[in-house]
Amino acid sequence: MHPDYQALFDSAPGRFLVLAPDPPRFTIVAATQAFLRTVQARKDDVLGHGLFEMFAQAQDGAAPGLRASLELALAQRAPDAVAVPRYAPHRPPEGDGAAAVPRWWRTLNTPVLDADGSVRYLIHSIEEAGSGEGVVREAPGRGEEAPFGTLFDRMAEGFALLDVLRDAAGRSSDARLVLANPAFRRLAGSEPGQALSSSLRAALPEFAAAWLERLAQVAWDGQPTRFETSLGPFGRWYEISACPALPGSCALLCFDVTARRQAQEELRLSEELFATAFANNPAAIVMSRFEDGVVLDVNDTWLAMAGETRAGAIGRSARHFWPSPEDAQRFLQELRDKGGVQGWEQEFHRPNGDPLTVQISAQLLNVRGEPTILSALVDITAHKRAENELQALNATLERRVAERTAELAAARDAAEAANRAKSTFLAHMSHEIRTPLNAVIGLSQLLSRMTLPERALVYAGHISQAGDQLLALTNDVLDISRIEAGEVHLERVPFELQPLLQAVCGIVQPQADAKRLALVLEAPATLPAHLLGDPLRLKQVLLNLLGNALKFTPAGSVTLRVRELARVVGRSKLCLEVIDTGIGIAPEAQERVFDPFIQADGSTTRRFGGTGLGLSIVQRLVDMMGGQLALDSQPGRGSTFAVTLILDLPEEL
To answer: What percentage of the chain has pLDDT greater than the value 90?
Structure first.
């Protein structure tokens, strides 16, 4: 210590010892002259020795409390007071040789902290014990007591010294406050500067009755005690540590433990909430140690699901319930790697052998420093059973669908084969029918040129007309049969467009003249002169469309309009429209008119005749040529059939 500081410390009026923090010895490092005079000792006799070596008399009754106070101040790094240990002089006083009289003291042990918070020294200060009358005196003293009083004032803990009073019957009746620091005054509800009554019943009336019995045991029986209570105007909680002082007296040290109580209450509520959620959770929950799998707790849902009793589950290893060690090891490995598992499906068996499928979600927690598994299990046995049944049903349905598909494919193949056979038969039959039919038509035409009676000529004309109609019907049947049988193949030859259009109009002109209909051809000279394609099938398409238009137009006109929509390198896109002013087609019938043997109105078959194959043949031929066939019609206003084709241009090949 610096010499100036040493002299200052030595001459300080307070009674101080500086102790090393080396329990249980508590070596004396320094002592003030006031302390040495009080205990009648020399500095050389004190320094370097342990506190309890030099003042052995302090061990008479008070030493355990003093030692505990020093150790508490060292451990908590906070001041701690102990009431009235007894110090005897180290040696007899000089002079007359009279024996020294032991004296009683109140002590305060205060740690001195380094910058890092560790305890460097302990300051052990003493004040001579005394008693007060009436009003409790203020803690700060005068003269050499001032340093102790300053520390006493600054203590965060409330400190008080009480004399416990007994009545004539020996029962504790009250306690007199001998000394109280400001912290105790505050917790007792005393305003700064306000006198605190010396009576415990007057100072703390709501607590006196409960405290007196305990304080009497401390003061008169020498039994230290600790208890917690709520004090002060704000209901804060304090831990009261009471230890014996002089006979009939005790010292109180009051620690504010409100924060600890609140934390304990919050912990209690949290644990209560967790316990409630744990016990009443609809999921089955189990807690087990990670290292050995020992079950720590389960809820009722788990017991009901597993078919176990609480006694049979808790304390056993959770791995006992797994169907195999390998399954348990895989689960634990994933839990160890990821810290948690979600949606783990596992099959178990209940004690009665029933299968149990669960979905497990687990988390690895640290509970009191020990790795712990918290698992939640959901019984999905019924769900898995339904899922398996659904999979089996799906497999059955898939098998049946496959079988039915195979049957339908076989039936389709058989139907297609039968249809091809029918088409082949019709093609052959139509061809066979045409041979004698041509003979009938030819003979009827010859008869018409002969000199016969008028009636015979009329009959010959009817025969020829009927033959022509029958030949047209036969040709339609032959064409559709050949198309369905795959016997129609398109040609790709050069042809002239304008002569083809004029030839088509020339063929149907007599039919138009017979019905007094105007037949109009709109084919501008800008159309391509030469094209590549199948002129015979194109002519057949136009003849069928024009024939239908003439058949279903009672008055007005039929127009064949040809337009070039676009021309690209080597190709021309044409639109060939047949427009009539006939009876038209209802919207609901427009889709059906392209089906074989179908006309827009069943009555029209009898009224206008025909097989209903014309438009079907046109649709098939247009499809074969890679074109499109469109219909626009309104009943009573006529119809427009539009054929769109893309044909090659020979001169640009």
So the answer is: 19
| Alpha helices (H) along 182-324 | 182-187, 200-203, 205-221, 258-280, 300-306, 310-313
Pairing of strands 86-87, 172-180: unpaired
In three-state secondary structure terms, 131 is: coil
Lowest-pLDDT range of 94-108, 482-496, 498-512: 94-108
Segment 104-140, tens digit of pLDDT: 667 888 888 877 878 888 888 887 654 333 334 443 3
Q: What is the dihedral of CA 317, 323, 325, 330, to 10 degrees?
A: -100
Q: What is the side-by-side strand order in the sheet with 236-244?
A: 172-180, 158-166, 249-256, 236-244, 225-231
Task: Kindly state the tokens that stand for 607.
Answer: 């009224």
Q: Are 298 and 312 in contact (CB under 8 A)?
A: no
Domain tally, the chain: 3
| Residue 136 shares a structural domain with residue 205 | no
Residues in Cβ contact with 179 at an 8 Å cutoff, skipping those fewer than 6 apart: 106, 132, 136, 137, 139, 159, 160, 161
Measured on CA atoms in the order 393, 394, 400, 401, is the torsion positive or negative?
positive
Distance between CA atoms of 518 and 277, rounded to whole angstroms?
Answer: 95
For the domain that residue 90 is a member of, what is the CATH number? Answer: 3.30.450.20
Residue 13 φ/ψ, nearest 5 degrees: -75, -20
Q: 248 with 119, same domain? A: no
Among candidate residues 608, 549, 605, the one with its CA nearest the CA of residue 581: 549
Calculate the average pLDDT of the chain. 80
Q: Half-sphere exposure (CA, 13 Å, Cβ side) for 197?
A: 12
pLDDT digits (tens, 9 = 90+) for 254-271: 888 888 888 888 888 887
Cross-strand pairs, 285: 376
* Maximum C-alpha span of the chain: 196
Number of other CB atoms surrounding residue 300 within 10 Å: 14
Length of the chain: 653
What span, in angstroms and rounded, lies between the C-alpha atoms of 281 and 273? 11
Closest CA to 213 of 227, 230, 198, 203: 227
Map residue 176 onto helix, strand or coil: strand
Is 209 in the same domain as 85? no
Is it the case that residue 593 has pLDDT exceeding 80? no
**207 and 157 share one domain:** yes
Task: Give the domain range for residue 203.
Answer: 153-261
39 in the same domain as 119: yes
| Residues 129 and 171 both lie in one domain | no
Could you tell me the pLDDT band of residue 88, with boundaries at 50, 70 and 90?
Answer: low
Interstrand relation of 103-113 and 370-379 (parallel, antiparallel or unpaired): unpaired
Which range, of 305-309, 355-359, 396-400, 416-420, averages the lowest pLDDT? Answer: 416-420
456-495 pLDDT, tens digit per residue, is 877 777 787 677 667 666 666 666 666 766 667 889 999 9
pTM (predicted TM-score): 0.37
Q: Do residue 635 and residue 505 come from a single domain?
A: yes
Q: 3-state class of 167 per DSSP?
A: coil
Listing DSSP states for 298-330 in one string gives E-HHHHHHHT--HHHHTTSBGGGGSS-HHHHHH
DSSP 641: E
